[in-house]
Amino acid sequence: MDRSSANFKAFSQIVNEFVSALWKRRTYNIFENWYCLFGVLWGIPVPIVTIGIDLHSSALQITLSNIIQIILSRPFHVFFLLHPIFFGIVFGAMGTVRYNKEQEIEEFEKSLISKNAELAQKNDRLRELDRLKSNFLSMVSHELRTPLTTIQGYISFLLTEKAGAINKAQREFLEISGDSADLLNRLIEDLLDLSKIESGRFKVNLTTVDMANIIDKAMLSRRLFADKQGVTMENNIPDNLPSVQADGERIFQVITNILENSIKFNQKGGKVVITASIRPGGKVVFCISDTGIGIPGDKIGKVFDKFYQVDSSGKRKYGGCGLGLTISKSIVGLHNGRIWIESEVGVGSRFFFELPSAS
Ligand code: ADP
Question: What is the dihedral of CA 114, 116, 121, 122, to 10 degrees?
């Protein structure tokens, strides 16, 4: 709708409201609607002034008979005499329109207040459900962790052959079971972290951290996986990198998660490179780039959402549960840092995160 037709619509609505007010009793009730009384008072000077001018120009005295004579000799004075009534009607109708509007606003306010109360109630309920869900998540994760630790312990023990010799096939099966148990353990850790984040119990312990050391350890921890996937890893961080103010364990978690993704969403012969640079203002920016499948532009903002995976189809071939980046974002956020992604489908992705330097 263009501006002029919108104006016309608003104007015709006002006219309609005014005309319908003319049929309301309230319009003419000077006790309920002081606009009407005001209109009458406003109109009274009109016949007084016009008849007064006429009397004066005819050099007549102000007497009742002269006034009647003037009115009879010039009938247009009847029109002026009716002015207090006209004004009373017009002002009265305006008063009714205003009254109707005020009533509408009052109704609207009442409905807003009750909607607000309803929303507040629903919000409380949602908060309660969220709290119950976080408690449930935390309880289930704890309950799963205990038997899993036992399973991992026995697998490691059997692999040491202290309980008896094992053959090649048995070793292979135990190693596969161990890998699966590790995977399950990581999933449980992620769920526990998520429940801590959601309940505000997720904390970082900031100290001065040598990132070169952490990056070496993270790369070492993912070396086997990278070899298995046929992906090479390269560490290109400069020697003069300043220490950062960080929680070493948590930042290790961020790097291993990004590294794991860069290897997982890569192809045989692909590459993962870590670089770092110092920004003016004392920030250190780390970049982990890969030559993998990339992320479509409209999905980049979503990969930090909990449980979000670009490939959420039933035939997902990469595994994972979509929590790594959610947790990484929270960790970097607790360091007053930023994390962001640049990516191109079929070319690769670059994950950046920024931390404050310790100096
Ligand atoms: P997960 O890896 O367990 O699915 P994340 O939170 O770590 O969960 O990642 C969320 C999603 O972001 C992944 O499922 C994947 O779709 C996408 N993603 C993350 N890293 C990369 C990457 N390096 N290349 C392509 N896609 C990625």
Answer: 120
